[in-house]
User: Which sequence fits this backbone?
């Protein structure tokens, strides 16, 4: 198969992003701001962990280890997730804004993958995009209504946007495989995805009276795609694998 | 998840049953005797309303607090299948709380008041959730055996007289059956796994046996019996009846896995067909219910955290023109 | 308050001070919306419960996950509880008919056939030789039969229940 290495790299990025994001969001289960939102947020966290499982399964079909091994027995340096998803959940404002940035980014990419030249990716994208539509509806409604709701809500979300936006750009960190994937029709370049993402979120933020901050160059949150991660990822992985590591060969 | 609580703290304030309109009371009791449900807007004796609010509210609190012991392991579940299932299970507990608060709201107590009474310690929740989930196996035992006890309780209560509570329980029981299967599957994997997995499970069972025996509430001979509550179909089976049913269904399953139950006196009397066992420490039960359990402080502090740290979200979304009315059904 | 928890999530948050006087302001949990759920196209919407929400858009978002995360669903309605008008159970007797109203039910006409049979019998007794019975039965569309069989109506469209 042509472009195998590039394809695998893309699948790892997708799977790792969804796994770590889903894991982080699952930390809110039982602690959310109101019961109804707790339930909705928990569903979206499950969805994301579910997507990661599908992408790891695809990787397994391409010769990589099985999903549980890849996800639960790999060291942080081998993860390809963006640094954005590694960050602790912090307060709800940060988690909500991260959900907004992340799900619109994921949806933009998944929409593009519906036209991928790789049929299995296309099929998966078609399935995932249905649920992501809800994730985006949820993110948009919550963010715009809170931001327009009162001054306190607006200033908390603005602060979260200021913190999260530079981090969110790490989702589109260019990789050495970008051009190859685009030329093979597997996935558009990161630059073009980022552009499309910004075109989608900017009007929503304007409507919510929120503004995007300046981003330092070079982006200090780049590196995740190459295996450079924050310490938070290692802590997360240690925690996530705490039970499995007790007896790595056992069936749980 | 839920355990029986309501019958141990009947008090006498409020309108006494003798002060109720005898004609209305007779109609009300006849309706229940015919097997008809009571709906929120129906006339009902004060005592009926009070006991139901108390019971459903405690049930709701038990669900939301019950999300915490298992939540302890949500970030550490081993492997995709367990990770996804535990997320879904804990989410269900939050969902059950939502449904039950809604059922209690139809009786005229707002969700704000109920949450406030929980946080201020005025209103109780099932005692078992004041115990810690020390290892992964504890979550497996909770999901299997505590949920099994809860199902017995909830299936019984779903035949009660109050329409909204029955409807909520019907949906809850359907979801609990997933919990039970998930919990059993997890326990079976540990029991049939490596020696250290087995040990982990046995240790967890040892820790949880007392709370499990506490789950359906004090024995009939020391708990205050509400004959009225039975007649009104608020309570449908005695604590001991439910405990017997639990033992009947689950002790053989526990033994089948080669686990030891930490009670040498536990056996079924072939003559009476009843299980005999060492009474669990009911003083401990009372102590824990009154706030002195291993996790009472933490559980309430965490709920308080969720309420307080989430308030800005709720306030930002609140509009002046909003108006609360009691839900219909 | 520093509580050493077994839950790593709890150890990462700062738990509030112990306090037995939490005051939850009124409307803190918003108002409620009644949720109606349609399982499949063609089905009636069915009431399934309530959600607390600040407005209809969010009520729909919340209802989707609380009432349709497992069960099949193609459509949801939410209605502000305050906007629902309902009859009172005290007035439930208005639904109980005072006298027999079988005249407005299909089963209220099940004796028709007997009348025909009686008529035929009398006719036969009067003139025993007339062979009429077979031709008449072709047009026999008694109410019981239309409810079971498909019959061709005036417009030529197949009518009748399944």
Assistant:
């Amino acid at each position: 198969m042509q472009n195998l290495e590039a394809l695998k790299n893309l699948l790892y990025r997708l799977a790792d992003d969804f796994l770590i994001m889903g894991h982080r969001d699952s930390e809110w289960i039982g602690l959310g701001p109101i019961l109804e939102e707790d339930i909705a947020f928990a569903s979206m966290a499950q969805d994301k962990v579910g997507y990661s499982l599908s992408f790891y399964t695809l990787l397994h079909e391409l010769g990589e280890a099985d999903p549980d091994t890849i996800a639960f027995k790999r060291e942080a340096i081998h993860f390809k997730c963006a640094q954005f998803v590694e960050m602790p959940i912090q307060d709800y404002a940060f988690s909500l804004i991260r959900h907004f940035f992340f799900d619109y980014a994921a949806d933009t990419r998944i929409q593009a993958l519906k036209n991928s030249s790789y049929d299995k990716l296309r099929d998966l994208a078609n399935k995932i995009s249905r649920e992501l539509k809800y994730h985006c509806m949820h993110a948009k409604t919550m963010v715009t209504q809170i931001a327009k709701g009162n001054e306190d809500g607006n200033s908390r979300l603005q602060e979260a946007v200021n913190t999260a936006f530079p981090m969110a750009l790490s989702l589109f960190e260019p990789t050495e495989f970008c051009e190859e994937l685009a030329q093979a029709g597997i996935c558009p370049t990161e630059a073009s995805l980022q552009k499309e993402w910004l075109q989608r979120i900017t009007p929503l933020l304007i409507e919510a009276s929120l503004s995007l901050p300046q981003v330092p160059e070079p982006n200090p949150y780049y590196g995740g795609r190459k295996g450079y991660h924050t310490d938070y990822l290692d802590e997360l992985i240690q925690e996530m694998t705490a039970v499995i590591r007790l007896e790595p060969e056992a069936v749980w | 998840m839920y355990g029986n609580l309501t019958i141990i703290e009947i008090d006498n304030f409020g309108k006494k049953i003798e002060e109720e309109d005898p004609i209305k009371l007779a109609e009300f009791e006849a309706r229940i005797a015919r097997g008809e449900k009571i709906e929120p807007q129906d006339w009902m004796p004060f005592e009926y309303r009070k006991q139901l609010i108390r019971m459903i509210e405690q049930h709701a609190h038990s669900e939301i607090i019950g999300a915490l012991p298992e939540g302890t392991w949500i970030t550490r579940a081993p492997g995709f299948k367990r990770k996804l299932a535990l997320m879904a299970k804990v989410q269900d507990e939050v969902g059950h709380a939502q449904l039950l608060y809604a059922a209690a709201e139809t009786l005229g107590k707002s969700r704000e008041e109920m949450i406030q009474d929980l946080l201020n310690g005025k209103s109780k929740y099932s005692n078992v959730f004041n115990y810690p989930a020390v290892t992964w196996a504890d979550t497996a035992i909770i999901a299997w055996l505590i949920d099994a006890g809860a199902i017995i309780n909830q299936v019984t209560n779903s035949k009660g007289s109050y329409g909204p509570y029955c409807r909520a329980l019907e949906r809850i029981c359907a979801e609990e059956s997933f919990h039970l299967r998930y919990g059993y599957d997890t326990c079976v994997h540990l029991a049939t796994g490596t020696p250290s997995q087995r040990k982990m499970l046995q240790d967890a069972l040892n820790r949880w046996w007392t709370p499990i025996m506490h789950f359906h509430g004090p024995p009939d001979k020391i708990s205050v019996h509400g004959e009225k509550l039975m007649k009104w179909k608020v309570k449908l089976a005695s604590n001991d009846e439910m405990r017997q049913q639990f033992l009947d269904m689950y002790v053989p399953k526990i033994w089948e896995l080669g686990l030891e139950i930490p009670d040498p006196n536990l056996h079924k009397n072939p003559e009476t067909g009843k299980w005999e066992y060492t009474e669990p420490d009911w003083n401990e039960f009372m102590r824990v219910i009154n706030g002195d359990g291993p996790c009472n402080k933490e559980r309430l502090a965490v709920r308080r955290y969720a309420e307080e740290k989430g308030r800005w979200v709720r306030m930002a979304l609140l509009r002046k023109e909003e108006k609360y009315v009691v839900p219909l059904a | 308050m520093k509580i050493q928890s077994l839950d790593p999530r709890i150890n990462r948050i700062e738990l509030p001070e112990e306090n037995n006087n939490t005051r939850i302001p009124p409307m803190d949990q918003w108002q409620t919306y009644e949720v109606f759920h349609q399982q499949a196209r063609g089905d009636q919407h069915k009431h399934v419960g309530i959600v607390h929400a600040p407005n209809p858009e969010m009520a729909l978002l919340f209802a989707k996950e609380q009432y349709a995360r497992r069960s099949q669903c193609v459509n949801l309605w939410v209605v502000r509880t305050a906007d629902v008008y309902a009859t009172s159970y005290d007035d439930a007797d208005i639904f109980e008919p005072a006298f027999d109203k079988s005249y407005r039910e299909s089963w209220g006409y099940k004796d028709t056939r007997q009348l025909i049979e009686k008529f035929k019998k009398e006719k036969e007794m009067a003139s025993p030789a007339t062979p009429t019975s077979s031709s008449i039965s072709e047009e026999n569309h008694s109410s019981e039969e239309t409810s079971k069989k498909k019959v061709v109506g005036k417009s030529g469209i197949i009518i009748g229940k399944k």
